[in-house]
Design brief:
Blueprint (H helix, E strand, L loop, with lengths): L1 H13 L8 H19 L7 H19 L2 H22 L2 H4 L3 H7 L19 H24 L3 H6 L1 H13 L3 H18 L1 H13 L1 H4 L9 H21 L6 H13 L9 H33 L7 H17 L6 H20 L6 H12 L1
Helix pairs in contact: 1-3, 2-3, 2-15, 3-17, 4-7, 7-9, 7-10, 7-16, 10-11, 10-16, 13-15, 14-15, 15-16, 16-17
């Protein structure tokens, strides 16, 4: 895949079309500058490996922009849903594989360094990565269900309830508190789009019973302790960013830099906003904020302008997962999850360009008028 990504990059450079203006291309360029700068500034040549990861992501983005189609996007969505189901099924097997470490490694069903781990790991070596994949599967299923409801295809709507239940149960089994909170938010977005009355009733129910509902959150007995641990990591990560302000530490260098300063093994910042700044410096952090704000603005515009945008529900349900899971965790620091996020962002850019969704003042005025009415 890296070779294919580099080939896509080379093709764009050769044809002098590497920078058709795009905040995402600018974002990857900033990340590349940060990783090269960090390797030079910290005098650690092995950090140049991180530059390959950025080039890999960039090439995937360009490939989607060049060859993306609605059929390929649909294929991607169903692959994610199918892989989510597979993750849960393979997660039931670890007890049978516990005596076979090689087989457990090949299937990804064992959290490296741990034995008898009771959270659903799936096939990703880590329950938090599985959680992200399952949430994407839920979002894509919800989007299909909304399309079925809009076309009055109730049989297709109903048969999707079973895989939806399996994926939702899987999120609970991963033991990820951030994942469960993100899943609740996705459910609320779904009901908001499906039926406003059901949405309001659900919102009142959650608000009124919030204290009791927390008892259903996985590992709820350690919520307070976990939050204080997170707060300490965030504060330390901020200090680390101050020491590597311009270029950051890169994701690979974060653990070593954190351990040398605070004498504890922490692999990432556990917050996507802090993480982007500490790992890619102010250059990468500001570029990420620009991509985030542009995506939020475009998504808001598509939502408020009353047109039948075909894929709006897909992105309305899936894009927030990156941020919702990123507040208390940072699963996208892993290349296997980062790849999913990049493909999703690439199709988002492909979609908004194909639908001609510019960020312009006339659209903003139209939204303002509709909001007043």
């Amino acid at each position: 895949m890296l070779v294919l990504s580099l080939a896509a990059l080379y093709s764009h450079i050769k044809n002098k079309r590497l920078f058709p203006f795009s905040f995402i291309s600018l974002f990857f360029l900033c990340l590349l500058v940060s990783t090269v700068g960090a390797a030079l500034q910290m005098a650690k040549p092995f950090l140049f490996i991180e530059s390959l990861r950025v080039l890999f992501y960039w090439g995937i983005y360009l490939k989607v922009m060049d060859t993306g189609t609605s059929d390929k996007f649909r294929f991607f969505r169903w692959i994610v849903i199918g892989c989510g189901i597979y993750d849960i099924l393979i997660g039931w097997v670890p007890k049978l594989l516990s005596g076979e470490p090689v087989l457990a490694f090949l299937t990804g069903t064992e959290l490296l360094g741990y034995k008898n781990y009771n959270r659903l790991i799936g096939s990703t070596y880590n329950p938090n990565f599985t959680m992200f994949l399952l949430l994407l599967g839920i979002a894509f299923l919800f989007a299909e269900m909304l399309e079925n409801a809009g076309k009055k295809r109730w049989k297709s709507f109903i048969w999707k309830v079973l895989p939806l239940f399996i994926l939702s149960k899987g999120v609970f089994d991963t033991g990820s508190r951030a994942g469960v909170v993100a899943m609740i938010c996705i459910y609320l977005i779904f009901f908001f789009r499906l039926n406003r009355g059901v949405f309001i009733a659900g919102l009142i129910f959650i608000t009124a019973g919030a204290r009791k509902l927390t008892t259903f959150i996985p590992r709820n007995q350690s919520i307070a302790g976990s939050f204080w641990d997170r707060e300490k990591i965030w504060l330390h990560s901020f200090e680390l960013w101050e020491n590597h302000f311009l270029f950051g530490t890169t994701p690979i260098g974060f653990e070593q830099a954190y351990a040398s300063l605070f004498h504890k093994d922490i692999f990432h910042a556990h917050d996507i906003f802090i993480g982007l700044f500490v790992e890619y410096g102010v250059i990468g952090g500001i570029a990420f904020l620009a991509v985030f704000l542009m995506a939020a603005c475009k998504l808001s515009m598509l939502f408020f302008v009353k047109k039948n945008y075909r894929y709006l529900n897909i992105f309305l349900l899936s894009l927030p997962i990156i941020v919702l899971t990123g507040f208390l965790d940072e699963p996208v620091f892993s290349p296997q999850i980062g790849l999913l996020a990049v493909v999703l962002l690439s199709y988002w850019e492909w979609y908004t360009k194909s639908m001609h969704v510019p960020l312009n003042i006339n659209l903003i005025k139209k939204i303002t008028v509709q909001s007043k009415n």
